[in-house]
Amino acid sequence: MGMNVEKRWAGRWALMALAVLALPVQAATYLRFADEAGTARFGERLADGQVQPLDGAPWAGGKALGRPRTVEASQLLAPVTPRSVIAIGYNYPSHTTDRPDPTALGMFAKLPGSITGPGAVIPYPRRAKNLHYEGEVVIVIGEPAFQVPREAALSKIFGFSAGNDVSERDWQAGDLQWLRAKASDGFGPVGPWIVTDLDPASLTVKTFLNGTLKQSDAVKNLFFDFATIISEVSETIALAPGDIIFTGTPGTTEPMAPGDEVVVEVSGVGQLRNVVGSP
After folding, report:
1. What are phi and psi of 13, to 5 degrees?
2. Which residue, among 220, 222, 247, 223, has the nearest Cα to 233 in the 3D structure?
3. pLDDT beyond 90 at 94
4. Of the four, 7, 78, 161, 232, which is 20 to 30 A from 114 by CA?
5. Exposed, middle or buried: residue 165 (CB in 10 Å: 0-12, 13-18, 19+)?
6. Is the pLDDT of residue 15 over 50?
7. pLDDT interval class at 2 (50, 70, 90)
8. Adjacent-strand bridge partners of 50
9. pLDDT-based confidence at 26, cuts 50/70/90?
């Protein structure tokens, strides 16, 4: 092959490589479900709605296991089993109209036992009197993150889900800490799945109570964006793949009653549906 021909082919390969790099990244959807034996499994939701089971968590490189299958909504579990569950308070201007704008990130913890999935009943503790919904975008961490600079923080995200930071307002106001108010069993529905490669700045969150829109806002309005959140949290807390961060709730909230249906909708992700149980 002559030198000119080699140069022409080298130029074509370079152009092809640039073209591939310019292609939009295809988002993927991952979930957890209970199979017929009751075993929890990870899976990838395919374009035709079928689910390809995986042999492990997708952020850990889980590979296809067996053939794609149908998974019913009733089989869905929380898409994560986090070691750490971090939450951010007072992060939307629409949620802080009665207080000064925050000057520092307000973070707190929820317990892993608070995490439940789509369709799970939200428990109404027998001593609770003022149980509220809080619809939020949930970040799922994909790589170990400790003392991550802000400019590198978004690279640690695996994907996004919808979450409901269930809160008992009387306990929140009266207890020494928010542990009971926000971290009780079942106070953290997440789902219905995780979607990767979404543009954080374009995400919106809405909450519906019995079909009526109650909350609606855009992530671009946050006081502290996702990069800042991950950087600040990881300054003192080492985040592991599969850990999650509730990023804040917008607007105002109202009490929930037994039998109420709460739907949290995150653009690009879908709807998380849960019903409130009885004391």
Report:
1. -65, -40
2. 247
3. yes
4. 232
5. buried
6. no
7. very low
8. none
9. confident
- Are the C-beta atoms of 226 and 123 separated by less than 8 Å? no
pLDDT band for position 7 (cuts 50, 70, 90)? very low
**Residues paired with residue 162 on neighbouring β-strands, in sequence order:** 137, 191
Give the separation between CA 262 and CA 276, rounded to whole angstroms: 8
**DSSP classification of residue 79:** S
CA 194 remoteness from chain centre: 7
Chain centroid to CA 229:
14
Count CB neighbours of 172 within 10 A: 16
- Helix (H) / strand (E) element for 157: namely strand 157-164
- Residue 54 DSSP symbol: B
Q: List phi, psi (to 5°) of 232.
A: -70, -45
Structure token pair of residue 13: 């390969």
